[in-house]
Amino acid sequence: MKKKKPNKLKILNDPIYGFIQIPNSLIFDIIEHPYFQRLRRITQMGFSNLVYPGANHTRFHHAIGCMHLMQKAVQVLRFKQVDISEDEENALYIAILLHDIGHGAFSHALEHSIVDGISHEEISLKFMRKLNDEFDKKLSLAITIFEGKNPRKFLYQLISSQLDIDRLDYLKRDSFYTGVTEGNISSDRLIAMMNVINDELVIEQKGIYSVEKFLIARRLMYWQVYLHKTGLVAENMLVKVLKRAKELAEKGEKLFSSTSLNYFLSTKISKTNFNDKTLEMFSKLDDYDVLLSIKEWTHHQDKVLSLLSKMIVNRKLFRIEIQNNKFDKQYISKKTDTISERFGLNKTESSFFVFSDIIINQAYNSNKPIYILNKKGKIEDIVNASDQLNLQALTNPVIKHFICYPK
Amino acid sequence: MKKKKPNKLKILNDPIYGFIQIPNSLIFDIIEHPYFQRLRRITQMGFSNLVYPGANHTRFHHAIGCMHLMQKAVQVLRFKQVDISEDEENALYIAILLHDIGHGAFSHALEHSIVDGISHEEISLKFMRKLNDEFDKKLSLAITIFEGKNPRKFLYQLISSQLDIDRLDYLKRDSFYTGVTEGNISSDRLIAMMNVINDELVIEQKGIYSVEKFLIARRLMYWQVYLHKTGLVAENMLVKVLKRAKELAEKGEKLFSSTSLNYFLSTKISKTNFNDKTLEMFSKLDDYDVLLSIKEWTHHQDKVLSLLSKMIVNRKLFRIEIQNNKFDKQYISKKTDTISERFGLNKTESSFFVFSDIIINQAYNSNKPIYILNKKGKIEDIVNASDQLNLQALTNPVIKHFICYPK
Amino acid sequence: MKKKKPNKLKILNDPIYGFIQIPNSLIFDIIEHPYFQRLRRITQMGFSNLVYPGANHTRFHHAIGCMHLMQKAVQVLRFKQVDISEDEENALYIAILLHDIGHGAFSHALEHSIVDGISHEEISLKFMRKLNDEFDKKLSLAITIFEGKNPRKFLYQLISSQLDIDRLDYLKRDSFYTGVTEGNISSDRLIAMMNVINDELVIEQKGIYSVEKFLIARRLMYWQVYLHKTGLVAENMLVKVLKRAKELAEKGEKLFSSTSLNYFLSTKISKTNFNDKTLEMFSKLDDYDVLLSIKEWTHHQDKVLSLLSKMIVNRKLFRIEIQNNKFDKQYISKKTDTISERFGLNKTESSFFVFSDIIINQAYNSNKPIYILNKKGKIEDIVNASDQLNLQALTNPVIKHFICYPK
Amino acid sequence: MKKKKPNKLKILNDPIYGFIQIPNSLIFDIIEHPYFQRLRRITQMGFSNLVYPGANHTRFHHAIGCMHLMQKAVQVLRFKQVDISEDEENALYIAILLHDIGHGAFSHALEHSIVDGISHEEISLKFMRKLNDEFDKKLSLAITIFEGKNPRKFLYQLISSQLDIDRLDYLKRDSFYTGVTEGNISSDRLIAMMNVINDELVIEQKGIYSVEKFLIARRLMYWQVYLHKTGLVAENMLVKVLKRAKELAEKGEKLFSSTSLNYFLSTKISKTNFNDKTLEMFSKLDDYDVLLSIKEWTHHQDKVLSLLSKMIVNRKLFRIEIQNNKFDKQYISKKTDTISERFGLNKTESSFFVFSDIIINQAYNSNKPIYILNKKGKIEDIVNASDQLNLQALTNPVIKHFICYPK
């Protein structure tokens, strides 16, 4: 009976790719592990579904989708005589499956409030090591690749680079579920044009327009979707409400929360004290802990907490203004005064309702170039290879300033 | 500023239909209401995402999608000279938007555990009446239609019949998000072939094959998706865990839960005592209350509760057997004995782990026929109109028996 | 240089499947052969584009698509431990690529007018044998399979049966290009459920609803698309105009035509005298020969020929009436008289303008059953395996009568 | 009966947009006219189907698709309070339907061989005027708009500008049928963001990324699809074969051709002598005349004509080299010598087999800017409005040189 189990689930449906095949039983078992199953309860795009109601896809599905694209990449590269051993192949699948396993509930919001000072990549690595122990060290090669320590650079570049499998799936998937068809990219074609020269991942010359389009599509997704005003506001309000809750918890105030959320609210977590128990607690924390708590906080006696919570739950979101220059201090303080008076809050409390920050997007990072393999067999940065489009301009980070306050 | 608000949100993205337009500010305000926003936190397909990982779409999106299709239907019917007043049009949009607002968390599971004895349609009606009070009686006509009390039958049939707008959206939507392309139906074509004869909704003759295909697609979706073994098991386990929690709560045992879930666990709700407070509590209950509580119950001292909870959260689901005949009592009691011994449970406790039930699907209900308008201008039941396919057979309900128990 | 050529074209774009890979250079060379390239100039659906303007896809693309699905089928079956040698695999690709190579211009129309008495399958076989000579007998196994002479029945069933790869592609493709989404089938899923038991192609139990849906979709496509009134009329008018042209040519009248069309108009071709020259001429005949000739015939002095030609070119198509019973002789002769008088034609001439015939469709042929592999490992006809839907009814051929005459 | 006709065809299927509605009977009658029906026999992308086998869509379907998008544009603009009268609306539909009616067989190829010196726009205008006479001057306003003579500039800009309805359909359609998904644009979104300020067509601020993506997608389609090596070679070979045929015809040599092709081969057509008869002949000339003639010319005694024809029909296309600089004269003459010797051709004859030319693409033309309506209500050229992407670079035409010769 036991043996048959993997078979049953060997194939998963994906609205985007059709069928996804689970290649072997080790991978099947990793997917079945509670650590990985947790990803079913973390949405890929956080509060973006407040703007794009179709965007409820999970990190689970994204990770599975990445594994599928990785299978295609391996197939294409082998077809082009790139030598990839069975162990390396397997390690690629594991590494891409687990690359985001360290993401917290509502992804980035959590990183900026309750688990500060440690990146999700570092947490992913902790999970991988834990799993490696459980699975008889079968994840060792995957970990080496994930850490960028394997001499064959392209293995790492498939996992993490400006044209990695992660991006090829998430841009396609996010575009699909939001309905923003303009962000759609041709993952298939980009993969079909991959090659490896001196252990470096490259794109063949004829793929140059596809890469350009990929960069432009990604840029569009950033400004139109990921940094969409409404989603941005909601995410910032989430950060604020969690910060407030943490303040209250640290002061010893009672507030509704699940066991694991409570752990993170009442404990200061830093790189140095992130231990096994922290990992275990982290592995139980997902969107449900956060959102239900916020729902309950709507009744809390702390005005800041309850007000913010109500606004989030009932989607009465702050107004946001965005501009290229920094907001004038006077403007901010005038806003703060108004709010302070309107809601009867003191200065500190008001800072949860009126705040200013920046958003940054760099469309292309020339430190880790996307390489084009030209017809003469040489490789060059896409920025130089492109015949006309001034991609150099995309390397300048775009910075915008915003201010939020209640409507 | 106030005035501009509706404008901003006039258009919603839908991966299926492209853009959905919100027709006016009354409808916009209904959508903004917390009662309706709650639907963002209730998935359309409950635990089906354990089988089809893409199926995380919400009742919110389904309701919005229905409104969109209703706009198309009104357009088509008016084009065919069917008289529909502006008030009726608006009422249709409101009625279809709110038709499912009474659905509880995880939809059907809740109806069979903690809010027994009152259907979601009845609760929808309670919500509509409450909203009607809030919105200056502007929902009155919508309510009359929803109750089937309007003399123009087709208005009701667009909301609720065997070929209503509800089904036209959910079959298409569920097929889309699960990736089960075979369940895809051509809502557009079916709507394009709608007409009204003597206030009765009919499908024009040339649409006969489309209706047949619609019935077959729906039947396929039932057996392949809605009643998929794994989803079925998970839903039944959910019912059991909630029943156990209710038992414990009624006995006065402490157990983690949100305010509103706690209300329903500790109160016996019947048709007669479902009052305003109940409605308010219900309006705050969604998937997050249920799932987070289950996560917490994994640590509860009650063995039944914690065991079931762990199995659900970590996706260690029961085995299920399905057959055409009733399961033998002896077979069931043998299974119960095994489980009882294996987990150290008494008889009553074991009944949460080994249980048998039936599933029923009737592909076509001849009491509320789908009418075909034939070339001679007469209307007849699709069962008689179809030239060959024996649709009569589809009127017999298919009943299957199943038994569940831990693997 | 020679060696590199195959590489260049190894991948073809398909709007339906994405990328299609050409597996090896033998297959590449067969595709490059003028016999196969001719299929680029023959539309898959003949005059259906007069109803569905998107339906301009060619037999070339269909054949390539079939090869792609066959690659998937081989992969699935091998995954299930079905032994398929490399030679058999290759033969399957060749056989499916060439299964329709004997189709004439405008497909079926030609078979009923100028190349009577020999089926397109027989002509396909002639082409295969000719190619076999050119390609050093490398097509021998493919031919054996195509003829149904290979002992492993499933190889033949993949090429020709009620659930063959041919149908899996053409239903999907025709539905895609016409925009009749209801005819869409899930080729992927059906292939994923294929298996082989005792050399017999079977579908696994859980695929039963997919097969049902496939049969219903096919039936819908027949009545809604393939036998659509307008397409039917156009095709019949095409048969008539070609018959008239042949009559005139046989009488020695001069009329515009290409070399190869002229050959078929002026020569009586039967099974016995279909020789190498006939094949050569046939290999040069495509939609372009036929349609341009009809365009020129609009100026011909023969009234029947020019009138019919004008009506076709300018899309002034006949009216068609369809009913379940035979048309009354008197009704037909009355129509004939009217037309005869209106256009000044004698009796014989009028028969090109008023004619009656039948259309038949059998949705399921129980002589070559689709086998379902049930859970007990036994195989049974889908008609018996289906739990409810009365598929037996689908075995009765539906016959309809029609009459055509100018509007 | 007459009245009912339009009804029958009121709705057309489109794989891209679903259903397309024909708005009224005047438009229906224009579509039914033989001039317009001719577009059914002219493919949109000429010989691109030799590279992308799915690209067999016709100018007929493109024109119908444009009309559909124009309906959406009118709806959007009116929703934004832009005043468009019913007459203007109708004129827009007619103008966009007929904007390409002057395209010859295989589109551009013909313009460069047998109907030199007169653009397809000029011929379109001739057709419109002829139709205007036939339809009681009901096309007058459409013609004024098409000629750019209407004072309301945006009407013309919808028909012809850098973001006109024509491009919104053809980029989407060509991308769809070729399967080059990267060229897909979001016509819906772009239209949703259209507005009119001072009779000027503008795109609202938030659409800026969509416009950028549109420009990049178009650029990609040019280099990857429209100027794809293989398609380019085939089109150039077509130009050559037609030029040769014209030479022979002018010398009085007999060669197979249809009546209308013969007219153009044997007559020198210039702007001054393009009369009513020319128009009538042109209205009968389509892809079928050209391709069938080439098929027949494979047997012609003129070596150049027959050799080129065979190469085209059997897809034995020339090799092409592309580079940024002009090809060296010596290189060309060396190639010519080789070919001359290999095929036994004299110098003049060889020039049909070895030739060099340029291709140009300008991604953005700053003389007719795309205007963005910024938040302050001012309009500015997208080149200035874009925050980062250096669109200025796109205004420089890219010029590439190519040389072709037999493999």
From TrEMBL, chains A, B, C, D:
Superkingdom per UniProt: Bacteria
Pfam families assigned: HD (PF01966), HD_assoc_2 (PF19276)
A single BP term in Gene Ontology: dGTP catabolic process
Keywords: Hydrolase
GO molecular function: dGTPase activity
Domain HD: residue ranges: 59-171
InterPro entries cross-referenced by the UniProt entry: dGTPase-like, HD/PDEase_dom, HD_assoc_2, HD_domain
Protein name as annotated: Phosphohydrolase
